[in-house]
Design goal:
Largest sheet: none
CATH topology of the domain at 24-122: Helix Hairpins
């Protein structure tokens, strides 16, 4: 464990002997959180890509509609005008499909955010438990050390001291 991340109440104690029994559970929870966050990042990236495609389709639609309007005034034949309208309808349909995909991705992204929050709360709970266990371990080490010091002091006190006898 990194000494700079130790709880303040354990910094005066050698905690190298501390073994956290739930460390595998803690590690698995960290992996779950990492996996959820990676999925959230992918969903966010997919959402950005869909929105970029939507912008591209909208811009193409606007440019084509503007050009079509200008050609209409210059005497465009009806068949060409019909093809233009069909293409504009096709672009509009593409945009609507992308909008549906975006909405589905937003829902999925929101679900992944919620999952990440839940995973983070579980990990935080395990981290607090680990800190509590480490604090208890440090208290036990202090207690044992204090008891040992008391026994040493009592042993020295009951042993006749040559300097005292000379007085």
């Amino acid at each position: 464990m990194n000494p700079t991340k130790l709880p303040a109440q354990t910094r005066d104690v050698d905690v190298r002997g501390f073994v956290y029994a739930l460390e595998p559970v803690h590690q698995r929870q960290q992996w779950r959180l990492d996996k959820s966050m990676a999925a959230l990042a992918r969903a966010q990236q997919d959402l950005l890509e869909i929105e970029a495609k939507m912008t591209q389709v909208q811009e193409e639609h606007d440019v084509y509609a503007k050009e079509s309007g200008q050609r209409l005034h210059s005497g465009l034949d009806p068949a060409a005008h019909r093809r233009t309208l069909d293409y504009l309808a096709h672009l509009r349909g593409q945009w609507e499909q992308l909008a549906l995909q975006r909405d589905a991705l937003c829902i999925a992204r929101d679900g992944l955010r919620q999952e990440c929050l839940i995973q983070q709360m579980k990990l935080d709970g395990l981290s607090r438990h680990k800190e509590d266990a480490l604090t208890e371990y440090a208290d036990e080490v202090r207690r044992r050390s204090s008891n040992e010091q008391d026994r040493d002091w009592l042993a020295r006190r009951t042993t006749p001291n040559v300097a005292w006898e000379a007085e």
